[in-house]
Amino acid sequence: MSTFSAPRGTYDLIPPDSADFLAVREAMAAPLRRAGYGYIETPGFEQVELFSRGVGESTDIVTKEMYTLTTKGGDRLALRPEGTASVLRAALEANLHRGALPVKLWYSGSYYRYERPQAGRYRHFSQVGAEVLGAEDPALDAELIILAADAYASLGLTGVRLLLNSLGDRECRPGYRTALQDFLRGLDLDEDTRRRIEVNPLRVLDDKREAVQRQLTGAPLMRDHLCEACKEYHEQVRELLTGAGITFEDDPKLVRGLDYYTRTTFEFVHDGLGSQSAVGGGGRYDGLSEMIGGPALPAVGWALGVDRTVLALRAEKIAPDLPRGTEVFAVPLGEDARRALFALVTELRRAGVAADFAYGGKGMKNGMKSADRSGARFALVAGERDLAEGTVQLKDLASGEQSPVGLGALVGTLLAALRPEPS
Ligand code: AMP
């Protein structure tokens, strides 16, 4: 223990558990790469204004949860609380929207929110995200949802549920908003919630408190107010999902509170996670580009939470397929053997075999203990006599069988044993 510990609401990824995080990130990225998404990376901080406009002045993220700072040069910056605004800012700055459309992008990184920490809710967390810019096509909304569902499925998760809704558009949303406000104003609500009715009425539907939810029975729902075009669009998304074998639940109260969110909105939840059950979410945000000073640009995207997906794996007791751990562990006995085996380990690694070495002159007993602990399938042991004969001892750590192998034949022998050709 040093004098310091990880800041409140954060934690370190330490082996062997950290391997699960890599596996989750990879599982989320693989379907995107196969579907033509290009990788984008943006800075960990941006001008505060980008988020206050791009996430919304009235959201908790902006009013309570942003880590902001003023630089020595007087710039007001914020650690990024989410990815969409930054990705859109970067794409517009690079004029991607003037090239072939749609632009499909994916990203992976750290995000920061000053939230009250609890299981599944951290101040530093990790997301993999995807955004598609410049096209309004129900097939894109469906594609993104399918790619996320496939990512969860590829990890072996069976407990992820998809909730789906449509938020309408500029045509039909304003009328619904007014109808909802009229209904909400008649309820018995606290000051804060009353204020929310005026700024962000859809968010009230999302209130988790039992006393509020009880009063919301009978609230007008967007689905009964959708215009023909939005109804048709949503129906197509639903059909495409069904055609792809994706199960979803219509959730007419699923909302995103801001005006630039339009039409498709969705969330992936896992019931094994307690109150922080959202493992990912997203939707269409056709108005966001204009909010941050860009041209009209329809867009749709999602962000999946890596931390909570790892928790979901643990809740379902799934050990993901991990990248290969150590396969061969070398234990040298004496100085000459050290040189010879070190060269062999380098050669094995270059041939694609995960190999490690008993560093620190451990001797036979401790060296073999390390070999066992490494989880390797084979140990290589060599002493003066083996080297004089031009061999090393190859030991199968599962069966305990051991036999000498000529130095020149070793890499080939190991490759044949570790990667048998399919017959
Ligand atoms: P959001 O941008 O709030 O829609 O978040 C997208 C996903 O990121 C959520 O579904 C969560 O899985 C994850 N997430 C958001 N906030 C946190 C947090 N404070 N700690 C851990 N994961 C989070």
Automatic annotation (TrEMBL):
UniProt entry tagged with the keyword tRNA processing: no
A UniProt-annotated Pfam family: HGTP_anticodon
Superkingdom, natural source: Bacteria
PROSITE patterns assigned to the protein according to its UniProt record, in alphabetical order: AA_TRNA_LIGASE_II
Catalytic activity: tRNA(His) + L-histidine + ATP = L-histidyl-tRNA(His) + AMP + diphosphate + H(+)
Keywords from the UniProt entry: Aminoacyl-tRNA synthetase, ATP-binding, Cytoplasm, Ligase, Nucleotide-binding, Protein biosynthesis
Domain Aminoacyl-transfer RNA synthetases class-II family profile residues, every copy: 23-323
EC number: 6.1.1.21
Family (UniProt): Belongs to the class-II aminoacyl-tRNA synthetase family.
Family annotation (HAMAP family): His_tRNA_synth
The protein's assembly and partners: Homodimer.
Protein name: Histidine--tRNA ligase
Organism: Streptomyces sodiiphilus
